[in-house]
Specification:
By secondary structure, the chain is an alpha+beta fold. It folds into two domains: 115 residues, 2,3-Dihydroxybiphenyl 1,2-Dioxygenase, domain 1 (Roll), CATH 3.10.180.10; 87 residues, 2,3-Dihydroxybiphenyl 1,2-Dioxygenase, domain 1 (Roll). 22% of the residues lie in helices and 37% in strands. The strands form three sheets. An eight-stranded mixed sheet has the order 2-3-4-1-5-8-7-6. A hairpin with a 7-residue loop joins strand 11 and strand 12. The radius of gyration is 18 Å and the shape is globular. It starts with 10 loop residues before the first strand and ends with a strand.
Length: 237
């Protein structure tokens, strides 16, 4: 087996959210985020627009899994061997957007993390986007920030980019990357474990302006930004 390299590079490809109101979720992401809905069967919806994709299903409201795409099957095979050698239990992939050799593990909060090679319908890959916004990172809140950070950094090989400390020196947030960008995943300390947010990357300030105009036309309030994110110093809207 080759030396441990982690999943590098693995880009955040898509997410699955389950909701007690999946139809309302489909409507929101269609109208506000410019994603076209496609029903996949068994109550599962694919929402796709440009370089952003979500799966939406029914059930208890939760981020069911995050899916990271590796560049090719060779990289995936090497990473699978390393993860298995580390003692993690591998489960079958639950996503229709990856090839059949994808696999899933569960983090300390029980949330799925899927790794695979993208295998999407051509109409999804070629779709032109009126408003640019690539799915870029996902963040969760957790009561187990230490075990969560250790799992993603040590068991999966994500690289720690930044930590935020409180006045007592305790970690309140940890940002990790699985590709050259500042972070593709982060975990925030919280009194409960839950999804926090996911983010889309615009190309420039003009895109942020256009998104702001789009939300204004829909009377959707913006409660944070435009400005700069602390860790990473990236522009936010």
């Amino acid at each position: 087996m080759s030396q441990w390299t982690g999943p590098w590079p693995a880009r955040l490809h898509h997410l699955r959210y389950d909701s007690k109101q999946p139809e309302a979720m489909v409507t929101f992401y269609r109208d506000c985020l410019g994603m076209e809905p496609r029903e996949l069967g068994d109550g599962l919806w694919l929402m796709a627009g440009g370089e952003r994709r979500l799966l939406i299903g029914g059930g208890e409201t939760e981020l069911a899994f995050s899916a990271f795409a590796l560049e090719n099957t060779g990289s995936l095979d090497d990473f699978r061997d390393q993860v298995r050698a580390g003692g993690l239990n591998l489960a079958p992939s639950p996503t229709p957007l990856f090839a059949e050799d994808a696999f899933m593990v569960h983090d300390p909060d029980g949330r799925g993390v899927v790794f695979g090679v993208a295998a999407e319908p051509a109409e999804v890959l070629s779709r032109v986007d009126r408003l640019a916004g690539r799915l870029q990172h996902v963040v969760v809140a957790s009561t187990r920030i230490g075990p969560m950070t250790a799992f993603y950094a040590d068991a999966l090989g994500f690289v720690v980019s930044d930590r935020v400390l409180d006045e007592g020196g305790e970690v309140t947030a940890c940002f990790l990357r699985s590709d050259p960008e500042h972070h593709s995943f982060a975990v925030f300390r919280a009194p409960e474990s839950r999804p926090d947010h996911h983010a889309y990357e615009a190309r420039d300030w003009n895109d942020i302006r256009d998104w702001a105009d789009h939300f204004a036309a829909l009377e959707v309030p913006i409660f944070w930004g435009p400005g700069r994110h602390g860790p990473g110093n990236n522009l936010i809207g």
